[in-house]
Design goal:
There is one protein chain. With 166 residues, the chain is mainly alpha-helical. Helix content is 63%, strand content 6%. The protein has six helices and two strands, in the order ααααββαα. Strands 1-2 form a two-stranded antiparallel sheet. Helix 1 packs parallel to helix 5, helix 3 packs parallel to helix 4 and helix 3 runs antiparallel to helix 5. The protein is globular and about 45 Å long. The chain starts with a helix and ends with a helix.
Length: 166
C-alpha cells in the first residue's frame, strides 16, 4: 500500500459517507429511527454502528482500546451522527498523518473485545474500516428505498475516481 493509495482510500470513504448522510438527512425523525428488521434495525442504528466501529479502531491504533461500542441513543439526529463522524474523521486523519508513510506497514497490537490479543498491519485495518463502512452503506441504501426515500447519489469507487481524475 502506498501513502497516496491510503490517502485516496480515506478520501473515498469520507466522500461516500457524506453522500449517504446527505440522503439520510432527508428522512423524518420517525423514518430515521424506524425499525426495518435489518442487521442493526434502523438507519440510525446502522450508521451509529459504523461510526462506532471506526471509533473503536482508531482507539486501538492510538493504544486506548475501548471496552464497548458507542450507544446508538447518543445519536438522536442525523446532525448528531454527522458531527460525531466528523470528529472521528479528524482523529483518523491525524493518526495517519502522525504515522507517516513509513508507518502504514507497521503492525499494531491490540485486544479484541473478548480480551484476545490481536495484531494486524495498520493499512489492513484501515482498509477493513473502509470496506466495513461500504457494506453498511449498501444496507442503508436499501433501507432508504424501503422507506420510500431517495437513495444517496452514486457511491461507487469508480465514480469517486472519475470525479477526482484530471
Amino acid at each position: 500500500m502506498t501513502p497516496q493509495a491510503l490517502s485516496d482510500m480515506l478520501d473515498f470513504h469520507y466522500w461516500a459517507r457524506d453522500r449517504l448522510l446527505d440522503a439520510v438527512e432527508q428522512l423524518t425523525q420517525d423514518q430515521f429511527h424506524q425499525g426495518l428488521g435489518n442487521s442493526f434495525g434502523s438507519v440510525r442504528d446502522t450508521l451509529a454502528h459504523v461510526v462506532s466501529a471506526e471509533s473503536v479502531w482508531c482507539s486501538r491504533w492510538e493504544g486506548n482500546p475501548p471496552s464497548e461500542y458507542l450507544e446508538p441513543a447518543d445519536f438522536e439526529t442525523v446532525q448528531d451522527l454527522r458531527a460525531s463522524w466528523a470528529r472521528e474523521e479528524a482523529r483518523v486523519r491525524d493518526f495517519v498523518d502522525r504515522l507517516g508513510p513509513e508507518g502504514i506497514d507497521r503492525k499494531i497490537q491490540y485486544k479484541h473485545f473478548s480480551g484476545a490479543p490481536m495484531e494486524s498491519v495498520f493499512w489492513h485495518m484501515l482498509q477493513h474500516v473502509v470496506n466495513h463502512a461500504t457494506f453498511h452503506r449498501g444496507q442503508v441504501t436499501s433501507m432508504l428505498r424501503q422507506l420510500g426515500a431517495e437513495p444517496a447519489k452514486n457511491q461507487d469507487l469508480i465514480t469517486f475516481y472519475r470525479r477526482s481524475s484530471p
